[in-house]
Structure formats: C-alpha cells, structure tokens
Amino acid sequence: MLKRAFDQWLTERRGLGLIGLKTAQNYSEFCADFLRLHGARDVAEITPQVVTLWYIERLRTCSASTVRTAHQVLCGFFKWAVEQGMSPTSPMSKVTQPRKAAAERKALDEEQMRRLLAYVADKPMVGLAIRLALATGLRRGELLALRRRDLDLIAGKVFVTKAIVKIGRCEIESKPKSAAGVRVVSLPPSICEELRVLSRTADAPLLLSRSGERPSLAHLSRAVTEAMQAVGLGEGYCLHSARHSHATALLRKKLPVKAVSQRLGHSDVTTTLRTYAHVFASDDAELADAVEELISGQASPA
C-alpha cells in the first residue's frame, strides 16, 4: 500500500541519517491529504493524472509554494519506490509542478538607499556587494563571479562573462543565464575609485568573506538581507532589490529602454518592459498632461 511504503521510505531515510525527525514529520504533513485519499492504493496504481488532479484540488486551498514542496517530497518517494521494485516507473516524471508565485519586487527609494549605504559603509563584503549591485544592476551570481581581472578601471568597465550558480549542493562558475548576460557594463567614477584601492590579485574574487574566501550565494544573500532589516527594510527587500532599484532609477530618468535592457543582461526589451511595467504605469499621469497640452494648446497647471 502507498501509505505503508511512504512510512517505510521515511523510516529508511531517518535510519540513514538523511533526514531528522522534524523533517520526516514535515514530509508527512505536506503529503497527508494525498495519503488520506490514496494511501490504500498500490504504489503502481498512482498515475500522473492522479497526482495532477490532487495538485489542482490542493491549489484551491493551499499556496503554490506548499504544493511545490509536496511535489519535491513525492518525487523523492516515487524515485525510491521504483528502486525498490514497487512500481515500474515514477508518475512524477510526467507531472508538472505548480508554477512558483512571482515574488513582489521592491525597489529602494533615495532615502532608503542613503540609510542602507550609510549602514554598510564600514562592512567590507556586504557594503561592496550592495554598492556594486546598485551601481551596475548585476545579479547575485554575476557579482560573486567577478574577479579583479574582469575590471578595466582606466576605461571604467566591468566585463560580465560568468556567474556563480548552484547545482545540487555545489556552487560552480558558469556562463550567465543567457547569451545577453555576457556584456560590458560601465562603472560610475565613485565605484572605479573604490575598486582601484581594493587589494586584490588578478584572479581573486572581488567579494571576500572574513575568512578570505568567496562567500556562498546563501551567505551573501543572508548578509545583505540582515543589513536591510537592520535599517528597517522588511519583507520583499533582498539583494535583488538593489538590481531592481538600479533599473527603476534608469527608467525613471527616461533613458532608452533598449540600453537599460542590455545593461541588465535581458535577452530582449520585452523582459524589461514586463518586469518594470510599474515604472511606466506610474508615469501615466505625465502622459495625460502631455496629451492635455497637445489638445488644448497650453501647458497644464503644475
């Protein structure tokens, strides 16, 4: 039976030290409704359609994040069940997990930026990461992949050719997420000056932790989030907020969308327009004023 096999799987994983008691309890909780409905069935009877219909029903009362977690648990269980000869194939190979809900993107306003920059002024790793992200709009993995040799401080350029990505439990250096991600980004003078006095060998990462090594993706994210929380920036603010703030500021200055898109490493301007649609929506009142001036022949009152 499915329920008995699921319990056996959890017991085996706990016995091998792969998961703890709390994790096993969480796995059971996420899949409790599925086991209640289908626990008496044979493992081999569970089809992709059975799982998909359960997802659809669960999404009526649960978040996509909750169902996505259950998906990962079921993938692990059915993989084990196939290895144990309980089923010829895993139904999960043909099941599409619910789409991840888009996280709300928050940009920092000028006052928030000033507070944050003042707070991290004496924090070498997190301070440099935030200043670089605000100045260039680089992604987290792109920032971590930067080495001294990627800079041309005479021309004021940074060459983005790689990114740190996580594969399983390992972090590796890879190409940016798209061909457009390989780009040259101009640096503002203040950042160039800061980088000129930075003590680094050509192959050394720009961002170094206290131990003198490149921080992990999680370490950098956590350090930036903690800094943002320390100055009163709550939910929705993270390292990506610096990239978002960079793009939002450029678009609000009415700079060409194509140029901003290329600077961000977007594959096409459609991505930029879709991601930063709120910037253009906020300018709608100005457009109405421009139309009023056009049709009335006089400027609208300030």
In the CATH scheme, the class of the largest domain would be Mainly Alpha
CATH architecture tag of the largest domain: Orthogonal Bundle
Largest sheet entry: 3 strands, antiparallel
Q: What is the string of helix and strand elements?
A: HHHHHHHHEEEEEHHHHHHH
Radius of gyration: 25 Å
- Shape annotation: globular
Strand % is 5-15%
**Structure summary, number of beta strands:** 5
Number of helices: 15
Taking the alpha carbons of the first and last residues, their distance comes to 73 Å
What is the CATH topology of the largest domain?
hpI Integrase, Chain A
Count of domain modules: 2
How much is the average pLDDT? 90
Task: Report low-confidence residues grouped into runs of 5 or more.
Answer: none
Largest beta sheet: strand ordering: 1-2-5
Question: What is the CATH superfamily classification of the largest domain?
Answer: Intergrase catalytic core
Description:
The chain is mostly helical and 302 residues long. Helix 7 (124-136) crosses helix 10 (217-230) and helix 7 runs parallel beside helix 11 (239-252). The longest helix has 20 residues, at 64-83. The strands form two sheets. The protein has a three-stranded antiparallel β-sheet with strand order 1-2-5, with no helix packed on it. Strands 3-4 form a two-stranded antiparallel sheet. It contains 15 helices and five strands. The protein folds into two domains: 2-94, Orthogonal Bundle (DNA polymerase, domain 1), CATH 1.10.150; 113-239, hpI Integrase, Chain A (Orthogonal Bundle), CATH 1.10.443.10. The radius of gyration is 25 Å and the shape is globular. 28% of the residues are buried.
